[in-house]
Amino acid sequence: MEPKGLPDSEALPEALLALGVPFEDVNGLLAAHRRLARDPGLRGGFGEELRAQVAAIGTVGRPSGLRGGWPAGSDGSDYLSALLLVALAPHTRAYHRALGIRPEVSQATLADLGRHLALGRRRGGPGGLHNPAWLTLHFRGELYQLGRLQFQRKRLTGPDAEAAAAAGFGPWTLELHVPAHRGPLSPEACERSFARARGFFARHHPTEPYPTACVFSWLLDPQLADYLPADSNIVRFQRRFAPLGPPGEPEDDNPLRYVFGTADGPLEELPRDTVLQRAIVDHLRAGGHWHVVGGWLPL
């Protein structure tokens, strides 16, 4: 029986390509589709999870993950998570249309599914989607790709909200994310993204005031300025932000995965072709660590 909520097996490849899915993953997704069709229990769980995700569209701050234990780590489970997002996509697009969001914004945002499938392959894992929890933000209407940067609707809580209040701002903020493989992080590209965000959220989410943007990233670690030129894109990106709380615990895997595609393997075997690659590796080999640092700026 064909799984409800998904295109049939003939129409599925076209739906996958519309979400930026690499050709290398199409057959794996078709196999997962066939598995759903022949397994009533799995199909029932899929439908239940889809209904839960549809109900979360438009919300802010709900747990971003899928229900615990779904799918249950059996063969093809990583592709089942990707298929769930494929089934969710028409509901997301309908939500976007109701808000007047242009189709090209929907396309750029939802195509992150394909990018993450490609990243999984680059990092040497089996085919499939290895971080579906993150992508539920895109498909719930909580995060949008606007040019070089991604903007996530967010309401700060705890110490972060206190820091925002001390600076004279409310708890609503746009959390920035900097995806890899979308070109240089140039000041011009960032400024275009910020300009788009100002108009976009005022127009499409007018009841949520977003006077600030924040970011929590290893890209804001001030130690990078010890290795990179003062006029480098990363250092200029750092200068945009005022500090938001102290640095977090060491998270060396973050820059390794972002820059090299993997956090596994000996440091001495990693490429040293760019200033950033050399900075990341040399700092770690000297016994240092990289940290996620928070920052904010007024929009």
From TrEMBL:
It comes from the Bacteria. Residues 143-297 form the GNAT-like C-terminal domain. Residues 11-141 form the N-acyltransferase N-terminal domain. Keywords: Acyltransferase, Transferase. GO terms for molecular function: acyltransferase activity. Gene3D superfamilies: 3.40.630.120. Pfam families: GNAT_C (PF18164), NAT_N (PF18082). This is Acyltransferase domain-containing protein.
